[in-house]
Specification:
Strand order of the largest sheet: 1-2
Structural class: mainly alpha
Number of domains: 1
Order of helices and strands: HHHHEEH
Number of strands: 2
Helix content: 55-70%
Number of helices: 5
């Protein structure tokens, strides 16, 4: 599961990277268009906010979790024995699986509703945003798989004594 999640996670990070590049190009093109021709490119703000920013925010979650690069508050964890650290890791991964799973389910329902009504934003041009609604549950679902993989890693560490624990990792595989 770790390997599958890593491959999918890296693919989603690649899409997020492309989204950053597209965002840079579109925003610069809009700024230049306004400065030179006094014309704004229609729909750019909606495309950037509804597609690209969402992709950049949600798609890298799985790889972020697998590499242990997510935000962690280790104040209490650093003050307890190693066995307790493993228990903290297991609890953290269980909470992550629950969070990602619940978030994926809620955003999946939002995506299904948006798909059914063919959601769009009205402006100079009507920009359909219903396709972008799938990015959130996709990122959270794969993030949940990553959390589940990390849970298995933490359980293995707890029962076999395998080290290093999750937070002692350098982020490399």
């Amino acid at each position: 599961m770790n390997r599958f999640t890593e491959i999918v996670g890296r693919g989603l990070v690649g899409l997020a990277e492309l989204s950053v590049v597209a965002m840079l190009i579109l925003v610069v093109a809009d700024v230049v268009s306004r400065a030179v021709f006094n014309i704004s490119i229609p729909g750019i703000d909606t495309i950037v906010a509804s597609y690209l920013m969402v992709a950049v925010s949600f798609l890298p979650l799985a790889l972020l979790h697998l590499l242990e690069e997510n935000i962690a508050v280790d104040f209490l964890r650093n003050m307890v024995p190693d066995a307790m650290k493993d228990i903290f890791d297991i609890i953290a991964h269980l909470l992550a699986v629950a969070y990602y799973g619940l978030g994926a389910w809620i955003f999946y329902l939002v995506a299904v509703e948006a798909f059914h009504i063919r959601e769009y934003v009205t402006g100079t041009w009507d920009v359909p945003i219903w396709p972008a609604r799938i990015l959130m549950p996709l990122g959270l679902l794969v993030g949940g798989l990553a959390a589940l993989a990390m849970l298995f890693r933490a359980l293995r560490a707890l029962f076999t004594g395998a080290k290093p624990s999750a937070h002692d990792s350098t982020g490399a595989f």
